[in-house]
Amino acid sequence: MKLLLVEDNRELSTWLTKLLTQSGYAVEQAFSGEDAEHFLLTQVYDAILLDLTLPGIKGQTLLKNLRAKHNEVPVLIISALDTLSDVIENLNLGADDYIAKPFDIQELEARLRSLLRRSKGKASPVISCGTLNYDSNAKIFNAHGKDLSFTPREHAILEALIRNAHTTVSKKDLTDSLFTLEDTVSPKALEIYIVRLRKKIEHSGAQIITLRGLGYMLTYETQS
């Protein structure tokens, strides 16, 4: 899952990026509203963490511009402006959730997971494809009651596929949604990860299908 963190406090941004990266997210850092708008011209994100008191283009203006362009990316406000009127105003502008500074990182991650589930139309934290299950809270895959082990990139790719199970995901969308501009993956490397994943999930009933010229789909084998 790829996030855009818009926060001008570089120390806080670096700390958040480190913790969120350890939790399996790909995080792009923007230190101003202008930086954020530049990224949004070419990149697609699963969610935006947005501070309000930014230099240049303010967080509220960035949020208004997003919604005016009918960009429905989930937005979680992170701000020291925490009065009830502040919260209501920004939710009315189109924010999806609001957390006040200072905050607990566990609460932030819980709100973010909930936000991402809602954006995918899923209420339960557990996503399944065949007997392959993914607990999005614990970030653990299992099949037949046994936990499965993956490298961070394998995990990220499989998570993206299971969140879009039975739907074709193009190679470009897959890499764009998983990796930052500084952490790119070549098409050949992606193919290698897919081969490894197929072997690791082969007993789960789930399978990754290659649709030539289109991309990949995670689905499950039906019994004849």
From TrEMBL:
This is Response regulator. GO terms for molecular function: phosphorelay response regulator activity; transcription cis-regulatory region binding. Keywords: DNA-binding, Phosphoprotein, Transcription, Transcription regulation. It comes from Undibacterium jejuense. Residues 124-220 form the OmpR/PhoB-type domain. Pfam families: Response_reg, Trans_reg_C. Residues 124-220 bind DNA. Residues 2-116 form the Response regulatory domain. One of its GO terms (cellular component) is protein-DNA complex. It comes from the Bacteria. The modification 4-aspartylphosphate is found at residue 51. InterPro entries: CheY-like_superfamily (IPR011006), OmpR/PhoB-type_DNA-bd (IPR001867), Sig_transdc_resp-reg_C-effctor (IPR016032), Sig_transdc_resp-reg_receiver (IPR001789), WalR-like (IPR039420), WH-like_DNA-bd_sf (IPR036388). One of its GO terms (biological process) is regulation of DNA-templated transcription.
